[in-house]
C-alpha cells in the first residue's frame, strides 16, 4: 500500500514537473517570438533611417544648389523685382521641406532610442 501511495506521489510530481517544463518551454517560445519581432522592428527602423539619410543628403545637395542659385539670382534680382519673388518662394519651400525632414529625423531617432531601450531590457 505504501508503494502505491509513493508511486502515486511520484507520478503526480513528475506530471507537475512536465507541466511546469511545458509552461517554461511555451514562455521561452513566446520570448523568442517577441525578440524576433523586436529584431524585425529594428531592421525596419534601420532601413527607414538609411532611406531618410539618403533623402537628407539629397535635400542637402538640393539646398547647396539652391543656395548657389540664390547667390547668382541675388545679382539679377537687383535688376528684376519679379525674379526676387520667385526665388524667395522657392527658398521658403526648400526651408519648409528641410524642417519637415529634420522633424522626421528627430522622431526616427527618438523611436530608435526607444527600441534600443526595449532591446537592452
Largest sheet: none
By secondary-structure content and strand pairing, the structural class works out as mainly alpha
Order of helices and strands: HH
Question: What coarse outline follows from CA principal-axis ratios?
Answer: rod-shaped
Helix content: over 70%
Count of runs of 4 or more consecutive helical residues: 2
C-alpha termini separation = 53 Å
Quaternary structure of the protein? single chain
C-alpha-based Rg, rounded: 31 Å
Q: How many runs of DSSP E, i.e. beta strands?
A: 0
Please, what is the average pLDDT? 85
Identify low-pLDDT runs.
none
Strand content: under 5%
Could you please describe the fold and organization of this structure?
The chain is rod-shaped. The longest helix has 76 residues. 96% of the residues lie in helices and 0% in strands. The protein has two helices and no strands. By secondary structure, the chain is mostly helical.
Amino acid at each position: 500500500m505504501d508503494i502505491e501511495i509513493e508511486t502515486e506521489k511520484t507520478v503526480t510530481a513528475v506530471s507537475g514537473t512536465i507541466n511546469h517544463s511545458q509552461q517554461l518551454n511555451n514562455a521561452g517560445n513566446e520570448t523568442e517570438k517577441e525578440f524576433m519581432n523586436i529584431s524585425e522592428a529594428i531592421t525596419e527602423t534601420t532601413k527607414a533611417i538609411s532611406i531618410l539619410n539618403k533623402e537628407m543628403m539629397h535635400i542637402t545637395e538640393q539646398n547647396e544648389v539652391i543656395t548657389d542659385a540664390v547667390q547668382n539670382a541675388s545679382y539679377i534680382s537687383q535688376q528684376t523685382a519679379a525674379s526676387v519673388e520667385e526665388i524667395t518662394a522657392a527658398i521658403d519651400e526648400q526651408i519648409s521641406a528641410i524642417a519637415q525632414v529634420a522633424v522626421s529625423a528627430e522622431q526616427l531617432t527618438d523611436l530608435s532610442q526607444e527600441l534600443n531601450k526595449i532591446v537592452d531590457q
